# Entry
Amino acid sequence: MTYKKLVTMIFGAFLVLIFAATVHARMTAREISNLKSELDKQGATFTVGTNPATERDMNELCGLVPPDNWQEGAPFRAMELRSAALPSSFSWCDQGACPPIRNQGSCGSCWAFATVGPLESNILIQGGEPTDLSEQYLVSCTDAGNCGGGWWAHEYHQNPGAVPEDEFPYVAWNAPCGGPYTHPWQIEDWAYIGYSGSVPSTDEIKQAIMDYGPVTVAIYVGPAFWAYKGGIFNTSEDGTVNHGVVLVGWDDNQGADGVWILRNSWGTGWGEGGYMRIEYGTSQVGYSANYIIYSMDITANFTGEPTENVTPNTVHFTDLSTGNITSWFWDFGDESTSEEQHPTHIYDAPGAYTVSLTVSGPGGSDTETKTDFISATRAPRKTIVPALIPLGMP
# Structure
């Protein structure tokens, strides 16, 4: 750790102590003026001032609540580092894969926005149309959290999947769940970067961004972050992580040793159009860093039970397709069809039936055909045996 970095960390802790009594209230003009003076003394390379975030209570902005012992059983995976292949600077925004900045409003739902952000970007990375997904669904319909705070919710994007924004628009309060909703987008998997619950190495986070798109991370937010207007954030405000954000890229050529390009959920009036350039290792940025695995590739597959029976043969079909699927079309081979995902069909006539399933989604479509998959045979006729009349009976 450099001397400059150590001084920055000590100063950041000093700032937190100064503002400890007011960090949960709206920041006043006097407090901002005092903050500017202290930052000038420290040689900060960023500016602070009144912004839409400082007009809100800190509890309305920082709602990340790490569960107790969250590391136990969590899906940690090491990155296959290819440092030589990593450029000195990279941003998914330069690749057209950053959706518009969102605004969580007066609700501690940063964890939901930090969950949704990487999936919206991944859809763009893979050539999909710009997509607005529902954070309110995560707030109102899952156990991951609410406006009082929460934790990452990727498992709900894995099963049952993400909900379109227009089905459940964001309202910034703990609205009833409602529904039912469609779930057109599902991730294949997700994982934490590395082996522990701390901050992964800079190269590990870079590799994850390059391989899997923007990553979700935690950070500690203090008064300087709260009032950030622009520049390179280099004041380390230390405390328990309390805010969820997304890292979309990096630049080794800025700051002391390089900066992350951080995407926030406080609207475009905060920071640099909703973004921040923050030095590596500052304010625990990168804590619990995690990524998603998403693919728009679609592969059709199915099964059915029973495949052999007498008529009428009732078959329960199960869709086993993978990918981002939004519609299903079954052809049962007897001039009957269905658009259900897991249909049940009755075969009344004997015969061998070829069944096909076509699945479709934003990434295209695929068809699986199974020839003579269902066999229905005529039920044997019952033989009526006449009753025998014993001899001697009248």
